[in-house]
Write a structure and sequence with these properties.
The complex is a heterodimer of chains A (420) and B (275). Chain A is of the alpha/beta class and 420 residues long. Helix content of chain A is 45%, strand content 17%. Chain A folds into two domains: 145 residues, Rossmann fold (3-Layer(aba) Sandwich); 219 residues, Rossmann fold. In chain A, the strands form four sheets. A six-stranded mixed beta sheet of chain A has the order 3-4-14-9-10-13, sandwiched between helices. A four-stranded parallel beta sheet of chain A has the order 7-6-5-8, with helices on both faces. In chain A, strands 1-2 form a two-stranded antiparallel sheet. In chain B, helix 1 runs parallel beside helix 11 and helix 5 packs parallel to helix 6. Chain B is globular. Chain B has one domain: TIM Barrel (Alpha-Beta Barrel). In chain B, helix 6 links the parallel strand 4 and strand 5. Classes of the chains: A alpha/beta (420), B alpha/beta (275). Bound molecules: pyridoxal-5'-phosphate.
């Protein structure tokens, strides 16, 4: 076989990362997806329909807020917040879910499967399936189901079947494995909507494409106000909101682009989900080559973050390549710092960041403090924090929250029969 | 009658450390003594995307019981030393790309060669992005066994033919391991096509009865049997659990059960009644 170096970068690679490392059973469905994507460029109907749904259903464009009070309080650069969390269903995830669901319809698929961790991607997928009349199955780790019950309720409200995943660590990565297994057997009528810019090619580039609307809007919103950004900041789980937000500037030298990973409760094994800055190692997991958190024997490590959406051992291949090449800088925010940012922006701006996004929020606060007033920092609030109520309330006001939950539980009459 | 019949060729799948280390040694022994033509030794992995529920669960248990890659090699070394059969049973190592890549592809293959392993199977390192696996196999003298699935596009099948490997591993179903597979016309044509240029076709996924083994081995070099052994071992564990109240009644050694299963699958031991 030819080595990659002789032939230049292969399609599906970003530098040394990316690729399509899948068992042969998944090859066919991925090639079918390649073919469908190849037709999109000339499919004006598709983009028109997507544009209309973005406007009418998602509520695009999402606002760019000048965080005036925060800017004053931090005493440095001017801080702007892209309020992506105002998108219908509460996060940027819907941009990708809708793009892929429409594509699936183009491909003649009647059933959608997806994995979810926090539930945001599952929620967006379930919602759009309800809207488009597609059958929907969501794979979700048992552990995540237990800690994200409200989103499970919402997905079921939209008519999706939520399947608990009991293998492995019973979290997001295991939900991906289960969805891949489903797809291996079901691809004739089923499309798998991956929720982040990762997985085997063509997923990373496709998700990037559907999320680039965030960056394009931000660019024109800044332009309309005559502003040049100096730093853009986004949180990074798999990397879909970050790559979409950074998208228009990737090929340029400025502005600085900063991705923020989950620092969890420290840098010890299993205490965080940060893969860059030397913590991750090159690996091949779930169909793509990138940087991963592996244990000494090459097994995928368990990870921790207060935000389920960042609690994943791998990073999308394009961001890994951009980080290695130095175009994107990476920082970490801890669980505590993310919670601090949630409180800060709630107090100063009347805006509640999702815990994931608050990792970016914290780093933006740090940057705004140290940069000068003629500089502009823009942070992507990828999601809003309503979904985190049960986590933030417990962390920030444990006493009253506990009393509330006890009273609530007491007020629900025990079902007479067994529920299931 | 037993002694005169020739066993049908199967490649029996097993996982070191499942159900635990000592018992997995007994499992291997039973598979060899029972007449398995080949052993496929799977190195368990945290994220086995192409395993069905049985093997997935067994792999997770093996990891929990202490499997490491080094321990996997030790297992193979001791198997080779202890193999009393006149011709040593050829061993294949199966692992996912994540594990093999993390250990260094060349190093992994080199170690397999040192231990006399016949072939290495990495289902998610397909020939056109194999990270140098095929070359490493040639360098160290170990067969790399490409995996191809029923329904694969002609250009994928061509890729496998072009590699001219000694063995080809054929998945006889479109999904993943575990559920029952009918050996119908489509599968037969697939196996014949794969073997048409002289490669030895190891065919499986969902093969769990002597009847299926007979159907497969009519058209392939050997039938791969995996989940059936895992299920037998699980059943044994279940019985052990149920017998906890009276442990004296229970024999925890899986040897007898596994050997009987191999003999049944290979047709060495005719059962009463149809398979
Ligand atoms: C609000 C929000 N932001 C960010 C993420 C992380 O994903 P990504 O890095 O793909 O944007 C998630 C994932 O669930 C999320 O819900």
């Amino acid at each position: 076989m030819k080595s990659k170096n002789e032939t230049g970068p292969l399609p599906g690679y970003f530098g040394e990362f990316g690729g399509r490392y899948v068992a042969e059973v998944l090859r066919g469905p991925l090639e079918e997806l390649d073919a469908a994507l190849g037709l999109l460029d000339r499919d004006m109907e598709f983009w028109k329909l997507l544009g209309r749904i973005r406007e009418e259903y998602i509520g695009r464009p999402t606002p760019l807020l000048f965080a005036e009070n925060s800017t004053r309080a931090l005493g440095g650069a001017r801080l702007f917040i892209k309020l992506e969390g105002l998108a219908n269903t509460g996060a940027h995830k819907v941009n990708n879910a809708i793009g892929q669901a429409l594509l699936a319809q183009r491909m003649g698929k009647s059933r959608i499967i997806a994995e979810t961790g926090a539930g945001q991607h599952g929620l967006a997928t379930a919602a759009i399936c309800a809207k488009l009349g597609l059958e929907c199955t969501i794979y979700m780790g048992e552990v995540d189901i237990a800690r994200q019950r409200p989103n499970v309720f919402m997905m079921e409200l939209f008519g999706a079947r939520v399947v608990p995943v009991t293998s492995g660590s019973r979290t997001l990565k295991d939900a991906v494995n289960e969805a891949l297994r489903d797809w291996a057997a079901s691809s004739a009528d089923t499309h798998y909507i991956i929720g982040s810019a990762l997985g085997p090619s063509p997923y990373p580039e496709m998700v990037h494409r559907f999320q680039s609307v965030v960056g394009k809007e931000t660019e024109s919103q800044l332009h309309d106000r005559g502003l040049e950004p100096h730093v853009l900041v986004a949180c990074v789980g798999g990397g879909s909101n970050a790559i979409g937000f950074f998208s228009p500037w990737l090929e340029r030298d400025v502005p600085r682009l900063v991705g923020v990973e989950a620092g969890g409760r420290g840098v010890g094994r299993g205490d965080h989900a940060a893969r860059m800055n030397g913590l991750g190692v090159p690996g091949i997991v779930q169909g793509y080559k990138s940087l991963f958190l592996l244990d000494g024997d090459g097994q995928v490590q368990e990870t921790h973050s207060v935000s389920a959406g960042l609690d994943y051992p791998g990073i999308g291949p394009q961001l890994a390549a951009l980080g290695t090449a130095g175009r994107v800088e990476f920082a970490r925010a801890t669980d505590r710092q993310a919670l601090e940012a949630v409180s800060f922006f709630a107090r100063h701006e009347g805006v509640v960041f999702a815990l994931e996004s608050a990792h970016g929020g914290y780093q933006a606060m740090e940057l705004a403090r140290t940069l000068s007033p003629d500089q502009v920092v823009v942070v992507n609030m990828s999601g809003r924090g309503d979904k985190d109520l049960f986590i933030t309330a417990r962390e920030l006001t444990p006493g009253p929250w506990r009393r509330f939950l006890l009273d609530e539980a007491a007020a629900i009459p025990a079902p007479a029969e067994a529920e299931e | 009658m037993k002694a005169t019949r020739k066993p049908m060729p199967i490649m029996a799948h097993m996982i070191p450390f499942f159900p635990d280390l000592p018992r997995s040694h007994r499992v291997a022994r039973a598979l060899i003594d029972g007449g398995a033509r080949y052993l496929e030794i799977q190195f368990p992995y945290s994220d086995p995307t192409a395993d069905g529920p049985d093997i997935q669960g067994a792999g997770a248990q093996a990891l929990a019981r202490g499997f490491t890659v080094r321990a996997g090699w030790d297992f193979i070394a001791s198997l080779r030393e202890g193999d009393g059969s006149p011709e040593q049973t050829p061993l294949f190592v199966m692992g996912y790309a994540g594990l093999v890549f993390a250990h260094g592809i060349d190093r992994f293959v080199a170690r397999a060669a040192e231990l006399g392993v016949e072939g290495v199977i990495v289902p998610d390192l397909p020939l056109d992005s194999d990270e140098g696996l095929l070359e490493a196999g040639a360098r160290h003298g170990v067969n790399i066994v490409p995996v191809i699935a029923l329904g694969a596009a002609p250009h994928r099948v061509a890729l496998v033919h072009e590699a001219r490997t000694r063995y080809i591993y054929a998945s006889l179903r479109r999904g993943i391991t575990g559920s029952h597979t009918d050996i119908g016309e489509e599968n037969i044509a697939f196996m014949e096509e794969l073997g048409s240029r002289g490669a030895r076709v190891l065919a499986g996924f969902g093969v769990a009865t002597a009847e299926q083994v007979r159907a497969v081995t009519g058209h392939a070099h050997a039938a791969v049997v995996g989940s059936a052994f895992v299920r037998a071992l699980r059943a044994l564990e279940q019985e052990a659990d149920n017998a906890k109240a009276d442990p004296a009644d229970h024999d925890p050694d899986p040897y007898g059960r596994v050997r009987a299963l191999v003999e049944r699958l290979t047709g060495l031991e005719a059962r009463n009644g149809p398979d």
